[in-house]
């Protein structure tokens, strides 16, 4: 298949696939013939998918994956050679799509195959990363003189520490699943071919929790890591962000504990056994 034929295939189908599994939204990058590298139309579609997810009150967690065996091989260098992405676009949109957009709900990356260059940056943008043992991650754009401009230099040091981040950023070397797990880059290490299913399973476990509390704590952690000017500022934000949750969810949650629900890791017991509490 020629390069022009490949482009025609991409233009004539959805570049991003969106599906729903209960309260979970799955979002798939759909350029498998190019290892799911992102061009401008795909970036726009990907951002729109996450904005729609954020607005959808029936959806609580999103799973981002790549169609056809690769997560994402970065930005489409063929497009870069003709039309460099040097200008910021609409609010929240980076060259890779949603890399500057702040979702209010958790996003899990299901990483298989290659997650390199901008694809690594997309994985870093997610809250959690479920990584297959054979997956390959890295700053492969190093060899082509393409900088990290989708949050890679910001999020990677925050996740793995500056020393390890510099190892990947400066050398451009690959890192595979087991090392990624040791570093904390991968949150879960799974067998080849199971990343999407395991990411959905993880999402289902998050869906079960009281959502306002989960989102408040998530936002406080992000603020403390990336926005707080000091420890006191972070503590102030955490307090102000958490207080509204107490009357909305904490009092009810405390009553569930009193009624014996939620002990020993069992968060959702049959309501018939505990008629005093609504589950």
TrEMBL record:
Domain of life: Eukaryota
Transmembrane segments: none
InterPro entries, alphabetized: ClpP/crotonase-like_dom_sf, Enoyl-CoA_hyd/isom_CS, Enoyl-CoA_hydra/iso
PROSITE patterns: ENOYL_COA_HYDRATASE (PS00166)
GO MF terms, alphabetically ordered: catalytic activity
Family: Belongs to the enoyl-CoA hydratase/isomerase family.
Name by which UniProt lists this protein: Carnitinyl-CoA dehydratase
Organism of this sequence: Penaeus vannamei
Taxonomic placement: Eukaryota, Metazoa, Ecdysozoa, Arthropoda, Crustacea
């Amino acid at each position: 298949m020629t390069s022009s034929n490949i482009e025609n295939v991409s233009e004539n189908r959805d570049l991003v696939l969106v599906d729903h599994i209960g309260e979970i939204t799955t979002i798939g990058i759909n350029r498998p013939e190019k290892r799911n590298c992102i061009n401008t139309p795909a970036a726009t579609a990907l951002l729109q998918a996450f904005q729609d997810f954020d607005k959808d009150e029936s959806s609580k967690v999103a799973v981002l994956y790549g169609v056809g065996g690769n997560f994402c091989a970065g930005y489409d260098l063929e497009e870069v050679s003709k039309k460099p992405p040097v200008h910021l676009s609409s609010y929240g949109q980076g060259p890779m799509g949603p890399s500057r957009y702040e979702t209010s709900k958790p996003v899990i990356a299901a990483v298989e195959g290659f997650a390199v260059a901008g694809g690594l940056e997309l994985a870093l943008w997610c809250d959690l990363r479920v990584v297959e043992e054979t997956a390959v991650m890295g700053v492969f754009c190093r060899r082509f003189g393409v900088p990290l401009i989708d949050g890679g230099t910001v999020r990677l040091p925050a996740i793995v520490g500056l020393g390890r981040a510099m190892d990947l950023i400066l050398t451009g070397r690959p890192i595979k699943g087991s090392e990624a797990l040791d570093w904390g880059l991968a949150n879960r290490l799974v067998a080849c071919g199971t990343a999407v299913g395991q990411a959905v399973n993880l999402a289902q476990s998050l869906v079960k929790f009281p959502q306002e509390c989960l989102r408040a704590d998530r936002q406080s952690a992000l603020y403390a890591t990336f926005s707080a000017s000091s420890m006191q500022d972070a503590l102030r934000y955490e307090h102000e962000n958490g207080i509204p949750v107490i009357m909305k969810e904490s009092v009810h949650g405390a009553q569930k504990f009193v009624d014996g629900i939620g002990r020993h890791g069992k968060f959702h017991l049959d309501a018939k056994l505990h008629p005093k509490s609504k589950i």
